Structure prediction request, 310 residues.
Amino acid sequence: MRIVLAPMEGLADVYLRRLLTAQGGFDWVVSEFVRVGQRGYPDRVFYNICPELRHGGKTDCGTPIRVQLLGNDLEAMAENAQRAVQLGSYGIDINFGCPSKTVNRRQGGAIMLQEPESLYRVVNAVRATLPPEVTVSAKMRLGYDDMSLMLDNAQAIEAGGATEVTVHARTKLQGYAPPAHWDELARIQDVINIPLIANGDIWTVEDYHACVATSGTTDVMLGRGAVRCPDLASRIRQNKMTGAQWQSVRLLLNEFWHDIRKTLPERDCAGRLKQWVNHLRKVHPDAETLWHEIRTEKQCPKLDRLIEAA
Prediction:
């Protein structure tokens, strides 16, 4: 069993990564993506996306972090992969799953799933520039509009030299709409020889077991499920069905708020707080109450008082 924290753009930033990994259970984390253009980036770009690189490439509790790159320029992808590893990244992950229209218009992310050869070229370029002992992984979806190239894409990633592949069990067209198609992951397992990590709709410990039974892999990547239930990875490891009570989650939320208040501009703090509370309210009734108290509030001093009283 390996459990990975997913790269959730605009959500799983350094603050949330620190708190979620501190709850235990995660083997490593994948960062938000670095969008690669046609050049090598200065170190500050990597430190901005992944501040953990300044601290040995690990979160505060010691969980390794792997930088994710998104792009299709072979030379630039290879150069930036090499630099990220030099700065301390725990291998390199390549994004072939982002559904963003902006990203796809620039021929990055999920749109590359329409051409398996493009996946091969990118993975191969990154693999060739790194020492053999460095992990190169990739994250893909089941396809773009449909699943017709699903097996070809997974095989192209393996042929390019990837060490492992994570598959979000939906197409780009399906977005995040339920259900995740775990049964398709079993088909992918049959045609590749590298480890497959399952991703999509793992909200509970019961979901984890159902995913394992259907997909045939014990390795999973947790995304929004971990955001809503911060102790989910730890409970999966312990096979513990009951989650943390609101009082424990509230303390994490309070810590998160203090963290972002110290470092982010005030104009950004309220939005980040509401984003997490909006996820928490899907599981915790008390978070629903808090949500209605803060949803229209923009002033941080007022939010200070509401968070303290939650």
